[in-house]
Specification:
It contains ten helices and ten strands. With 238 residues, it is an alpha/beta fold. The strands form two sheets. The chain has a six-stranded mixed beta sheet, with helices on both faces. Strands 4-6-8-9 form a four-stranded mixed beta sheet. The protein folds into two domains: 191 residues, 2-enoyl-CoA Hydratase, Chain A, domain 1 (Alpha-Beta Complex); 38 residues, no CATH class. Helix 1 links the parallel strand 2 and strand 3.
């Protein structure tokens, strides 16, 4: 039996490939266990500076596998109390989503939990929670509106209609749209640029940007200035 997820390290980049192509990379408990372990490996392995998540086959991820939703533990797959946003949120290193095809519902939530997205021209994005009658739990209602604005998020989630890669770019959901055959090459190029940066400062930047999600602009600005002043005092030996 093939592994539900492939994990490779190329130079200083980890390539994480969702690998259930026969099920359009639908999410089951085993895939989640491997995904969580892989994200934590990115965070803990000093050799790795950035991670890329993509899908095997023609899909990125079609969401939770409805054939196992009643039998698999999707909420706490490892039995340690950690859920998908917990694992992604604890990773201080950049995670790039390379969306190669359909990103549907839970698959869209995996993409939204990445730091930013590069999309193939074949990619599409869809939230079907309302049509299948399952409430979201991995950040759809918060992260989607953060990415595309509240009105567009409402349209996507209420209508359950798919949007194309070009529409996703127009809405701000993805950073770039590239020819399908160039997707991984482009994601790896961006990862290489990130690897050339100072890893400590990258972690600081990611933390400062994240801080703004739970603070006012004034509080976030003050937090940034505080860190800079502390750094300058260390440099000056003050």
């Amino acid at each position: 039996m093939e592994k539900p997820l492939l994990f490779e390290i190329e130079d200083e980049t980890a390539l994480i490939t969702l690998n259930r192509p026969d099920r359009r990379n639908a999410i089951n408990q085993d895939l989640l266990v491997h995904l969580y372990n892989s994200i934590e490996e990115v965070e803990s392995n000093d050799r790795i500076k950035v991670g890329i998540i993509t899908g095997g086959g023609n899909s990125f991820c079609s969401g939770i596998d409805l054939e196992v939703i009643a039998t698999d533990n999707i909420i706490d797959p490892r039995g340690d109390g950690k859920d998908l946003p917990d694992v992604f949120g604890a990773c201080k290193k950049p995670i790039i989503g390379a969306v190669n095809g359909h990103a549907i519902t839970g698959g869209l939530e995996i993409a939204l939990n990445c730091d930013f997205l590069i999309a193939s021209e074949n990619a599409s994005f869809k939230d079907t929670h309302a049509s299948i009658g399952i409430p979201p739990g991995w950040g759809m209602t918060q992260l989607l509106q953060q990415a595309v604005g509240q009105r567009m998020a409402k349209q996507m989630s209420f209508s359950c209609q798919s949007i194309s890669a070009d529409k996703a770019l127009q809405c701000g959901l993805v950073n770039e749209v590239v020819p399908h055959d160039e997707l991984l090459q482009r994601a790896k190029q961006i990862a290489s640029d990130i690897c050339a940066a100072n890893p400590g400062t990258l972690a600081v930047l990611k933390g400062l940007i994240k801080f703004r999600n739970s603070a006012t602009l004034e509080e976030a600005f003050a937090n940034e200035r505080k860190g800079c002043k502390e750094f300058m005092n260390i440099i000056r030996g003050a």
